[in-house]
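Quick start: load a record and inspect it. Here is Voltage-gated chloride channel:
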Amino acid sequence: MGEAAETKAGQKKRPRRQALFGALLALQRGFAAIWASVLDECSRAIKVIRQKGPSQFQFWLIAVVIGISAGAASVGFRGAINALQGFFYDVDDIDHLHSFARTLPWYWIVALPITGGLAVGVILHLFTPDGRVRAVSDVVEGAALNDGRVEIRAGLASALASLITLSTGGSTGREGPVVHLAGVISTWVSDRIHANGITGRDLLGCAVAAAVSASFNAPIAGALFALEVVLRHFAMHAFAPIVIASVAGTVVSRISFGDVPEFSLPLANQLEFYVELPAFLMLGAICGLVATAMMRAVLFAENTADAVQKRSGLPRWLRPAVSGAVLGVMAIGSPHIIGVGYETTSAALKGQIGLRDAMVFAVIKAVAVAVTMAGRMGGGVFSPSLMMGALTGLAFGLIATPMFPEVSGSHTLYALAGMGAVAAAVLGAPISTTLIVFELTGDWQTGLAVMVAVSISTALASRLVHRSFFLTQLERRGIHLAAGPQAYLLALHRVAKVMRPVGDTRMPDEDRCWEMIRDGIYIDGNATLEAAMPIFDKSGVAFIPVVTLGGDTDAPELRGALFHVDALKTFNRALAAKAAEEHS
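Running the structure step on this input writes:
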């Protein structure tokens, strides 16, 4: 009787188990179908982005993700600098690092940048092909020449090197490394979705905008910086996603640090009278000269360091340590050169520095920045240019306002205008820099003074260098972006891609080609149209034989012929595509 009851109960449980198993199987199949649908939709979205790019809503979602990621990278980089500086210098409040550093033993002030320089040298030697730190100029190059891509491996190594530099006494800024780190993030995404040139550049713009806005808590300026400096156009298709990414980066920053300006100005800065505006014209001219002197000092220091390294045979991995030793000695008497320098910048904006100290601090800071950059220690020029501008403007104000007290405002107004004027001239970004000054300080009532000084300084400095510090760096590497697309688009097209190969029905007579080769009129197939066009202009021929050059004793091999008309057609198509992108 008992066995029969158990058998009957087991038979009742079996259908329940089968029903439960069937339900679980159906649920698994449902999840599998949903997951397959999600993957299919993602694949379709990526395909749409590849084909139609930034005009699609899916692209904006990616822009948000990149904005959050770049903003988090910026916040994390800033937090890491503060934490490491606090650890190495044993200071609780980083905002008073320079004041506290005066109390430290001199040997500690000297030893830190030397140790940091050694670490930087080893990192760059191992992970970069040339031992050079990547920064904003490389991002600008990536946008123009590499479909919005930057070097990932070298970029990560550069970010780490810059972090160590700024944490151990280097005298540069944190914004340059953050911009390139953001470029690394966008490059990774672009590679994953196989983005074309337009999409890759706009993703790069999104990342840069988010990084800058998160670094300065300046969403408007961050978006315009990406358009003005990196993409170097204001196309409508790029505007919406870049603004969205900039806002996302700002939200990350404000969650971490709060919605407060970088610099607090206790006094209201107001123009006393419009007759004071000519003084800001003069300040703008002076700031343009100061910015030019700062840029040329950095370039001169780099040339000198290159020459010294070549003559002495100094290993490249020791070069940052030598610069660190010089910085350490300088920091013993001038601790304000340590790190980003926002404590000194804030003091200048508040008028807490005297005339003599303002002038001396500016000169020493310029030298420290040149030494750091020449040593390839890492960092950017944005924060140093803000500090240089604030000190220059304060010195000017302390001289000018006592001369005409009845029509003069506060001397701190000149510090604010000078800060924007020098930074705008160095970056070649008058629009975004003006807005950064307003958003950094929260002072929107001084627009006339800042705009006047910025306009004069950028107009003057752009004629003394190649538009900006970044474009001048690229010009020194033979990359001619400052003159516009017509100057660099030819370098994007290799002769081998445009030539008519041997065997083509349109190929000229080979005997004629060999005759021209013997006369010295030929070009290597690996060369670009940038090298070919001067040959056409000089020789006046309709075509140039294309060869593969062997060794000194090997005869060249004829590969084809490059026709002038084909080169011009390729150039014209490139110009048309660039114009279409910039005006779409």
